[in-house]
């Protein structure tokens, strides 16, 4: 089994853009089996694609609330319901942003 320190090193190398093939070859030279290498690279690979096309649900919810708020305000000028949706959307974006940052800190 590949030690946790080595898995952390693999994560760091992948983040820096080191080709996965070169990392695998180096691990083979160090005497690790194919199974051990794939078990170490799979969890190390996940954080590299962080938000690579994935957006938290809070961003979609916030966008929906913002659009709804703008539409309601455009139709019913000064409507408190429109302001409710608009401010709710902004708050959802802000809360989602801070939650994502905390998740990223936990992964690092």
Task: Write a brief structural summary.
The chain has 108 residues and is mainly α.
Give your account of this protein's structure.
Residues 47-51 have low confidence and may be disordered. The protein folds into 2 domains: 4-49; 57-107, no CATH class. It has 5 helices and no strands. Helix 2 runs antiparallel to helix 3 and helix 4 runs antiparallel to helix 5 (80-107). It has helices at residues 4-15, 20-29, 34-45, 57-75, 80-107. The radius of gyration is 22 Å and the shape is rod-shaped. With 108 residues, it is mainly alpha-helical. The chain is 75% helix and 0% strand. The longest helix is centred in the C-terminal third of the chain and has 28 residues, at 80-107.
Tell me the overall shape.
rod-shaped
Mean pLDDT: 84
Count the beta strands.
0
- Please, how many helices? 5
End-to-end Cα distance: 22 Å
The percentage helix is over 70%
| Series of H and E elements | HHHHH
Taking all Cα atoms into account, the compactness measure Rg is 22 Å
């Amino acid at each position: 089994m590949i030690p946790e320190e080595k898995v952390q090193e693999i994560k760091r190398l992948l983040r820096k853009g080191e080709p996965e093939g070169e990392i695998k070859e180096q691990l083979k030279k160090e005497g690790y089996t194919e199974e051990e290498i794939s078990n170490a690279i799979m969890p190390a690979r996940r954080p590299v694609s962080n938000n690579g096309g994935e957006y938290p649900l809070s961003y979609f919810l916030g966008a929906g609330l913002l659009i709804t708020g703008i539409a309601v305000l455009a139709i019913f000028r000064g409507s408190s319901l429109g302001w409710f949706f608009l401010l709710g959307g902004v708050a959802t974006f802000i809360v989602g942003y801070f939650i994502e940052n905390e998740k990223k800190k936990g992964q690092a």
